[in-house]
Amino acid sequence: MHFDAIGRVPGDPILGLMEAYALDSNPRKFDLGVGVYKDAQGLTPILQAVKLAEQRLVEQQTTKTYIGGHGNVAFGKGINDLVLGADSKLIAEQRVGATQTPGGTGALRLSADFIARCLPGRGIWLSNPTWPIHETIYAAAGLKVSHYPYVGSDNRLDIEGMLATLNQVPKGDVVLLHACCHNPTGFDLSHDDWRRVLEIVRSRELLPLIDFAYQGFGDGLEQDAWAVRLFAEALPELLITSSCSKNFGLYCDRTGALIVCAADAEKLLDIRSQLAFVARNLWSTPPDHGAAVVATILGDPELKNLWADEVEAMRLRIAQLRSGLVEALGPHGLGERFAHIGVQRGMFSYTGLTPTQVQRLRENHSVYMVSSGRANVAGIDATRLDLLAEAIAEVCA
Ligand code: LMR
C-alpha cells in the first residue's frame, strides 16, 4: 500500500501540553505550558478593543473577497508604525513594507522560503536555546541551521559566548534575534548588549532577522521596540517578523506580518514582488479577519488607547506574577535560587528545573510546563501561588 512505510512522529511538545492539560481531571492543575495569557479568572479573554472592532466590522464590512498578496493595506501601515514608530525615517523614505501573514509563524515561514529562494547559500543562526519551531521551519526550507550560545547550563545569559560566536559567523549569513521576551528563556539583552551585537552584525555584514512576537509584554509597547528601531535606523537592510497573537490576543485568528526594510524604495519593490510570489505558493492570500481587527484598532485613536491600556494591564499582571512566585518560594528557602524569574521578561521563564523535575511536577502535582523547564508565567493562577511554590519545593527537595 502507498502509505505503509509512513511512521509516526512525536506530537508537538508545546501544543501537546494543551491536550494533556485539558484531559487532566485534577481541579488543582496548573497550565504553564503553551504561551497563552490568562487573566485572574484563568481565561484567555477577547480584548475589549478587539470586541468593539469586531462589532464595527460586522456592521460595516461589505465583502469577503480576497485581500491582496501583501494583505490588508491599513494593517500593513499600522504594523509598520507600531513596530518602527510612526515617525521612522524608513517609513518616510518608503523603504519599509509589511506583508501580512498567518500569524508570526507564517512570517517566519515566509522569511525562510524567501531566504532560500532569493539568498541561496545563506545559513541561519539561532540562539541556543530558541523556540523549537525556529529550528524546524528554517530546516524545512532547506537552510543550514547553526546556533550561537544564549543561555548556558547555569541558566544565565551568556552574552560573551553569544558575541564570540557571532564574530565567527560567515559573512552574509542570517542571524535570528528575539526583539524582547526571549522564548523560551525570558532573558533579554540590555541596550548595551544590543549595541555590541549591532556592531558585529555591521562589521561581519550579517543580515538580522528580528522575531518580534511579544511587543508590549516586556517593558511596554514602545520600550520593547527599542532594539528593532536601533537596528532599523542603523542598517540598510533588515527583516522583522511581527505577531499579533499575544498583544492583540488574536491567537486563533492567525495575524502577523513580515516586515522588510530595504536600502531604497526601488529595491523594496523588488523584494516585495518576490515575497508576494513566495506567499502565493504558501497560502495564496492571507486570512482577513484578524488583520481587519488590528487595522480597525490601530486606525482609531480611541480604540488604540483602549487596546494599549489592555496590553499594559496584561504586562503588569505578568510582572506581578513573576515577583509573586519568587516571593512565594521564599519560605521554602528557594527565593534566591529562583530570583531570575523576577528578572526575566515576557511570558516565559526558563526556571532551571530539570526534565525529571518537570515530569514530577506534572505527575505528582498536575503542573504542566515544557520539559526544557520553560514555564509560561502568564498562565499562573495568582490565588494559588503558594500551592505552586509548594509543588516546586517538593520536586526540588
Ligand atoms: C509558545 O511558545 O508557547 C507559543 O509561541 C505558542 C506556540 O505556538 O508554540
From TrEMBL:
Its cofactor is pyridoxal 5'-phosphate. Its EC number is 2.6.1.1. It comes from the Bacteria. Gene3D superfamilies: Aspartate Aminotransferase, domain 1, Type I PLP-dependent aspartate aminotransferase-like (Major domain). This is Aspartate aminotransferase. Residues 29-392 form the Aminotransferase class I/classII large domain. Homodimer. The keyword Transferase applies. The keyword Transferase applies. Belongs to the class-I pyridoxal-phosphate-dependent aminotransferase family. InterPro entries: Aminotransferase_I/II_large, Asp_trans, PyrdxlP-dep_Trfase, PyrdxlP-dep_Trfase_major, PyrdxlP-dep_Trfase_small. GO terms for cellular component: cytosol. It comes from Pseudomonas fluorescens. GO terms for biological process: L-phenylalanine biosynthetic process from chorismate via phenylpyruvate. GO terms for molecular function: identical protein binding; L-aspartate:2-oxoglutarate aminotransferase activity; L-tyrosine-2-oxoglutarate transaminase activity; pyridoxal phosphate binding. Keywords: Aminotransferase, Pyridoxal phosphate, Transferase.
